[in-house]
Amino acid sequence: MKKLTKEQIDKALKVLKMPADSKLITHLNACVHCGLCATSCMYFIALQNDKYTPARKVELVASLYRRYCTLTGKIVPKLVNARELDEQMAEEMIDILFGACTMCGRCVKHCSIGVDIAYIVRVGRQMLAAMDLVPATLQATVDAALTTGNNMAIPTEEFVDTIQWMEEELLDEMNDKNARIPLDEKDKHILYTLNPREPKFFPLSISAMAKVFYAAKESWTLSSKMYDVTNYGLFSGNNEHAAVIAQHLYDEVKRLNANTLVLGECGHGSRATRWEGPNYLGMEYDFDVITVVELINDYIRSGRIKLDKSLIKERVTMHDPCHLSRNGGLESELRFALNNSVSDFVEMTPHGFDNFCCGGGGGQLAMSEYNDRRIKIGEIKAEQIRKTGASIVVTPCHNCIDQLMQINHTYKLNVKIKSIAEIVADALVIEK
Amino acid sequence: MYWYHWTTILALSICISVLFWHFIRLISLGKPKDYSRKSGSITKGVVYSSTKAMVDHKESAYLHIPTYFAGMVYHIGTFVSLFLYVFFLLNILLQISLPPWLVWILVAGLLVSSICGFSLFIKRLLLKPMRNLSNLDDYLSNFLVSLFQLFTLLNLLYSNNIEAIYYIIASLMLLYMTVGKLKHMVYFFAARYHLGFFYGWRNVWPPHKSK
Fold it and tell me: Which of A14, A147, A333, B43 has the greatest count of CB atoms below 10 A from its CB?
């Protein structure tokens, strides 16, 4: 690594020295190093190395805080392990905060004090981003979203072709000219968003959701340019980039004059748009923002769609995306959708708020240099799935789906991985 | 009043002032400004965070029962010792005698809690992952508080002989509280608040069933 310049160090330390509120100094001062968080972290469990203990992740950032922001750390740094921000420290931070944490937040629940470890990891990433030290692979994903509007840099023509192909499939299946996938239509009730993995790898999930919209007689549209629900700025730690990406969707809702922004099946994207987006932009949104799971549940509750649970006879289990359940409050909503769609639903142990991350979060899928670790920690999820005896795993997150498909292959689980829209579409009773 | 009484009153004043400064700083920095549309209740989240969330399916508790139990007893012992410290100070003027049965209950309790404290210290010293996680502050904090509990116990039994040492140890601990991790006495409550705020806002806490 190149020697850090004073400007880089100053920018990083500014993150610590200018807290917006009391949250940062609270969590930086609260850890007592009891070490009991170790067994709640999948990296520690899978890799059996104490450097992955969540408290040590916090300590990386807290030691810098003590060195530069506290009197004790400045006078007697050795007493409180106050460390200098130098190249060695920066490399350690990159390896641990980017390469060994999915920011899933499982350790937060189990911390004996209540330190928001995932938040501190994000602060550490913010410091690295301020020094331009985000791993190039992750930064490339952010850059693609900044420059093309979607993180996979899918050209608009390719996206439009895919959507038209899916629309033709839908027309054939429904045998109704009203079965459409509208693009760029103004004044619709809903602007629906996608994870770019859908048009790229899983277009059937788009047609599945289109089928649900068709059954519910919804007024909706997709955007041909700004449809990406993801925001890897959440993971890179660069709030300016995160704000630009959040602005893309905000502006598109305004341009198309939609009433409601519906967040497609993406855990972190839902979090980044619904909970963090307004904070990145520093303003309240003047339109509704809901996840697709909540929308589907509204359809079920109001009778706008009818489902026949008996259509899916296989045993189904659910993987909770961390940013929807633990960090998004949708644990029971996810179960409502699934319980109405399948007849044999079985939970993983643990599940819901306590669920283990699949291993693909935190930008891990984008950072290929950490692939071995990612697949290794996925073994925990593989064993959870295996123990349920399920043949279908449902999860409303396309990043999770990607990771689950890889661990399905690696650990020979022989299961099908589906999105919520796909499972609901399979159980859908279309009334004509 | 002797010199060690004045010394400890000075240490106590410094400790309270510094901890109060930390508290005021937290208050003045304020709570997070969240522009997202609130889905749950912050109050309910904070109440849950400060009560059931501390025990509800908590791995740091049920996967580590001996350590968790020792930690709980140790903290109870600390608060009892602090309470007795204030009582001893006031008793210089009040001259109240504690009933013998109460003294023996306190002695037994503090014996157990100080043993718990020293056990946690030894655990930190012996286990490599704990050593890797710890700094000098961790050892000093743990040792000083355990010693404080032990000398509270001894002061209950032999105050005529060890009163000076007791107050010196108490003063050292109070002064150290202002620089080391013992400050978590203030930040612990703030951390529970912020967790409650975060999860309450998003309707994660308290846990709920879908209708």
Answer: A333
